[in-house]
Amino acid sequence: MTRTVYTSPIKALSNQKFREFKDTFEDVGLLTGDVQIRPEASCLIMTTEILRSMLYNGSDAIRDVECVIFDEVHYINDAERGVVWEEVLIMLPAQVKIILLSATVPNTLEFADWIGRTKKKKIYVISTPKRPIPLQHFLYTGNSNKTSNELFMIVDANSKFLPRGYDAAVTAKKEREGKGKDAYGSKTHQSTSIKEEKNIWLSLIEMLRKKEKLPVVAFTFSRKRCDDNADQLGNLDLTTSTEKSLIHVFIQKSVARLKGPDRKLPQVSRIQDLLKRGLGVHHSGVLPIIKEMVEMLFGRGLVKILFATETFAMGVNMPARTVVFDSIRKHDGTSFRELLSGEYIQMAGRAGRRGLDPTGTVILLCKGNMPLMADLHKMMLCEIKLKKESKIMVTKYASIRKAEIISSWYNCIGIASYHHANKPLPAYNSDESYPR
């Protein structure tokens, strides 16, 4: 029996693809850190880390694998986890076919050249320069009912930056707050009070509701802030009586899968109240069954505002009409920094529903001082190329030997030096396979 393996960077995407695939195909299995469903299936869905473990352990299942599909392969650029993709690509047996999927790799030929040299195979590049749904980017400076319409476009659907929109946003904020030049991109990031936060969200949501821009994914870069943002909107109700009934029935069926005591967990009770009012929370601290409930209700359009961390953008097919950034600063495990262009584009790409919306709406909340125009331009419009610099440690040698791919390991040693030397790429003919 031959197998096909589909890998993704996160469990949420693996779970979603499992639900989709089993509706189309008969023999589908799922392997994540949480669950194992039909591991003997001919089509296996798993996280990339699971596939790496199977390669290291010399799993018998690998011998039957004919093709591996890597979704969100640009994750190979991740500072911490990117090495996982690199190792798996190198360790896969030569006979295994590879399909790499990504919507955010601008230097596809360069990346394909590295893959081709590593695997000693011809690589075919299929790409399109256009987004299915163009995006419009805005700054929001409102903080009350009186200022709820302070929404300023800074990038249009043709990806053109609009300095006038930026200047108008700064002027509106400056006139209201009386900060003069301090309204411009100061490096001091001011905090806002709980009351101010609540007023900002209420004014924004009311404006979006009037403009028919719901549902919304609101990206927030900490689990606590996700929970706090949802909890402080205790009086907000965005669902109709019919929608409440549908949500109630769905929740009852989902919760019935839990054991008796688990049905009374605080997290379960809390999410029921939020969901019935059209609010949702999605982050790594949420129980798996609750995540699944939130994802499915959001996919049906019954969750109107979803507060989520960055992982929700990693390929999960849950588009919204609008994406909101609570902030453009995040903690990367070492320090606080501004979002990288690739990170921003990945999350902003959740905006716009194919076949339903002519454009997607992306909004940045301007709570403290305004970001600099140059920083916004770089974040929104600059392309981040994949840079392959081998991070595989020599201590991995024994494991790679066990996986019987020594030749690929030696071939990998020259990867970093090859790209650092900026060696020109071979000529490319669109009618032929990429030459090796």
TrEMBL record:
- Tell me the SMART domains matching this sequence: HELICc
Please report the stretch or stretches of sequence annotated as the Helicase C-terminal domain: 203-398
Give the protein's recorded name.
Answer: Helicase SKI2W
Taxonomic source organism: Desmophyllum pertusum
Q: Which GO terms describe its molecular function?
A: ATP binding; hydrolase activity; nucleic acid binding; RNA helicase activity
Q: Which InterPro entries match?
A: DEAD/DEAH_box_helicase_dom (IPR011545), Helicase_ATP-bd (IPR014001), Helicase_C-like (IPR001650), P-loop_NTPase (IPR027417), RNA-DNA_Helicase (IPR050699)
GO CC terms of this entry:
Ski complex
What's an example GO BP annotation here? nuclear-transcribed mRNA catabolic process, 3'-5' exonucleolytic nonsense-mediated decay
Q: Which domain of life is it from?
A: Eukaryota
Q: Which residues form the Helicase ATP-binding domain?
A: 1-123
The record's annotation in Pfam families points to:
DEAD, Helicase_C
Substrates-to-products reaction catalysed: ATP + H2O = ADP + phosphate + H(+)
Q: Which UniProt keywords apply?
A: ATP-binding, Helicase, Hydrolase, Nucleotide-binding
Gene name? SKIV2L_2
Against PANTHER family, the record matches this protein to: ATP-DEPENDENT RNA AND DNA HELICASE, ATP-DEPENDENT RNA HELICASE SUPV3L1, MITOCHONDRIAL-RELATED
